[in-house]
Amino acid sequence: MGFIGLANRSLILIIGIVIVVVAAGIYYMSTSSGPNGEYVTPTEIVTSPKFMKGEELYVDYCSRCHDAKGVGGVGPALSASNLDRSVIENGDLDEGMPAFKEELSPEEIDAIIDYLSS
Ligand code: HEC
User: Fold this and answer.
1) What's 97's DSSP letter?
2) Could you tell me the distance, in angstroms and rounded to a whole number, from the CA of residue 68 to the centre of ligand 1?
3) CB of 99 closer than 6 angstroms to any ligand 1 atom
C-alpha cells in the first residue's frame, strides 16, 4: 500500500466522523420537544406562523402600553401568570386597559397569549 492508499483510508475515516457528528446533531435536534410535547426544533418554534403572528399582534396592539418586551409601561408586565383572557377581551376600562374583543378574533387573542407565555 502506497501513499494514495493511506490518504484514502484517512479520507474514509474523516468522512465517517463527519457522518457520525451530523447524525448526532440531527438526532439531538429531532428530540427537542415543543410546548405540547411534539418534536420540533428550536428554530421551528421561533419561526412558527402562530408565534410570529402573536408577536406581530402584540407589537401592534399591546406593546405601546405593555412595552415591547412585556415589561410594562402604562400597563403591568405581562407573563404567563397574569394573562387574564377576560381582561384582554373586556378590558379594565377604569384602569386604562382597553377591550379587544371587537378588534381581535379569539384566534388572535390565543396567538398573543401563546406568544407572551412562551
Ligand atoms: C392603552 C394602553 C393599553 C393597551 C393598548 C393594552 N393594555 Fe393591557 N393593560 C393596560 C393597563 C393600564 C392595565 C392595568 C389594568 C389594571 O390595573 O387593572 C392592563 C392590564 C392588562 C392585563 C391584566 C394584567 C394583570 O396583572 O391583571 C392583561 C392580561 C393585559 N393588560 C393584556 C393586554 C394585551 C394582550 C394587550 C394587547 C392586545 C393589551 N393589554 C393592550 C393598558 C393597556
Assistant:
1) B
2) 13
3) no
